[in-house]
Every structure is written in C-alpha cells, then in structure tokens.
Amino acid sequence: MPAPATFAPFLGDAGAGAMVALARRVGRYGMYVQAPPDVGFGVGLVQRHDAALQFLRTSGRSGRPTSLANFVARANTFRETYAYDRPVVDGIEPYLWHEGFVEAARALYGKPVIVPNIVYANLILPGQELGVHTDVPEFRGVNRKVVPEWLLVVMHHSGLFDRWRMPIATGVAWFHQAAGGDFFHYPDGPDGPEARIPARFDTAILLDTDSVFHGVDLVGAPDAEPAAMQPGALLVHDGDDRWHVEQDGVVLQRLGWEDVRLSISWKAYCFADEAERRLVDEHADDLSLPAVLDALLADLRARGRVGDALPEDPQLALCMIDEYVRFPQPPHARGVA
C-alpha cells in the first residue's frame, strides 16, 4: 500500500491563518448526513451504511455506549465545500493548487497527471468523533451520483473492479488544535498497527483514504457530550472566536473557537497519462450498475454466501457490506488501553 506523505509546516503561518479566516468567513456549515434513498438498490440504507453499522456495533472509536439518537449527534460532523472542479469560495486557490500536495499525489500512485478536484472543510465539536472508515472511491462510469456510496466502498474492497478504479489522492490539513481529535489510520491494513497524528496547526498528510482505514478520535474532554442535534442542524460563526449550533432557528449550544476542530481536505484524480484521462472523459470503458451487481453476485455465489434464490433487498445489500468491508477493530475491542 502506498506510503503517506506528511507536511509540517504545510502553508506557513500566513497561509494557515488565511485558511482559518476563510473558515470563519464561510460561516455556516451543515451536518454531513443524507436521508436514505427511497428508490434503487439498497433502498432504506443510509449512504455510508457500512461505516454507520461499524460505529453502532463497536460503540464508535471511544467505546462509549450510544443510542441511535446519540449516534446521529456524535458521528455527523459539519461540512462545507470550498472547491468542486473549480474554486467555489474565494481564497481557496492556494490550497486547491498546492504544489506539495500535487507532487505527493504523483508519488503516491506513480501517476504524473494530477487533477485537483474537491476541497471541503470538516468541523468537529466536543463529544463528536469520526468512526473508522475508508472514503468513497470512484470508478469509470460509476460514482456517487449514480449509485449509493456504500456500494462504491463495497466495490473497491471486493477487488473485482480495479481495472475501472479512478485513483484519488486525499490530503488532509489541520488549522486548529482542539482538545483530542487525533487522526488515526491503519497504513498496513486492518490487521496492522494503528498510526496516530495529532491534529496540530498547519500540518498535513496525503494518502489513499479510499483504501486506508482512518478516522478521528473523540474531540474535547473524555466525558464531553454533543448537543442533542438532528439532521439539519447548522454550525454558525458568530464573529470573533464564537460559534453556535442551531436547529430550526433554535440555538442548542454556544462554542468558542478553541472547542472546534478544523480540518480541510483535498482530493485529486491521478492519471498515468492524458490518454487515461481521455478514457474517463469519453466514457470509452465505463461500468454500469447491472454489470457491477452481476459481478458481485457471481462472486458471492462462488464464495457460498448466496444461492440461486437471492435475499431480498436490503438483506442482499447488507450481505455485500458484511462480506467485503473488513474493518479494523477499535482499541477497546483489541484490548488496547
């Protein structure tokens, strides 16, 4: 598995300060949660059903008991997009085109043509954590716009669709140091040792987050609890160093800047050459959802997991998640103090 690259410092004091100012200027961040689709394969499953199941089964990274309502508040961070194919927020250009990330992405896969694509901010509050997961991959013809996100994760971990995979490099940079909130990852696979990186101001890492399991430790004090928020809550900057969480116009919590963990993520497509890039643009060798499902079903039958009579949806979808996505166990399940 390609080794990650680390940066310390990353942008320098002035550049890092500009990212903090940008985060404040954007000012409003929604919860990263989506309603389950009501049509299509896997109907009723949330987009990241794989990660949600693992969080609920293990009580998350911290091992603290959780209810479904508490899970919604604990596991859904706040997010806003700063660039999508192009800058959508003024001032993100130095980050989107950061040459250090571009060079590290070239080295990660040995692919010289790098196309920066997305930049988004994650803000995590006291009592929240980001459970172990891998990011959503992409394949020629099949992406999150046309199939559920959990299915893309299943596809990658199955290994059946590597020929169509579009390698994505992910950079994560930290611009504020709240209590807790270490970044952890498993660079040698789910059975390997855990590596940890404190979320220190103006530091960064670049790695293959579609393949490497990773997450964020509990933010704040060990006994911190998030506000009783539901999907649709907003994190709003009040000016100076103050923030608040609101739900339907009602303020649920007030916070200082020192309480908030800010990271900014960068994603770029990595191509071997312009011909490979054209293959994507021209859709000359695309997958389709029927072809994906046929391949997965054939493999599940070969493994003895399903027979001729298939489980009904969503049981079949859950079978795919359980068969292909093998998570590392959290420290409390491994017996690690």
Explain the overall architecture.
- By secondary structure, the protein is an alpha+beta fold.
- The chain has one domain (5-326): q2cbj1_9rhob like domain (Jelly Rolls), CATH 2.60.120.620.
- Helices cover 28% and strands 24% of the residues.
- The protein is built from ten helices and 14 strands.
- The strands form two sheets. It has a ten-stranded antiparallel sheet with strand order 1-9-6-14-4-3-2-11-12-13. A four-stranded antiparallel sheet has the order 5-10-7-8.
- The radius of gyration is 20 Å and the shape is globular.
In short:
It is globular, with a radius of gyration of 20 Å. It has a single domain (5-326), classed as q2cbj1_9rhob like domain (Jelly Rolls, Sandwich). The chain is built from ten helices and 14 strands.
Number of domains: 1
**DSSP, total strands:** 14
Q: How would you sum up the major sheet?
A: 10 strands, antiparallel
Averaged pLDDT: 93
Distinctive features:
10-stranded antiparallel β-sheet; single chain; 337 residues; 24% strand; Jelly Rolls; 10 helices; 28% helix
Note the topology.
Elements: E1 5-7, H1 12-26, E2 28-31, H2 49-58, H3 68-75, E3 78-84, H4 93-96, H5 99-109, E4 113-124, E5 130-133, H6 149-158, E6 168-174, E7 183-185, E8 195-197, E9 203-207, E10 214-216, E11 234-239, E12 242-247, E13 250-256, E14 261-271, H7 274-281, H8 289-302, H9 315-324, H10 331-334
Antiparallel strand pairs: 1-9, 2-3, 2-11, 3-4, 4-14, 5-10, 6-9, 6-14, 7-8, 7-10, 11-12, 12-13
Helix pairs in contact: 6-9
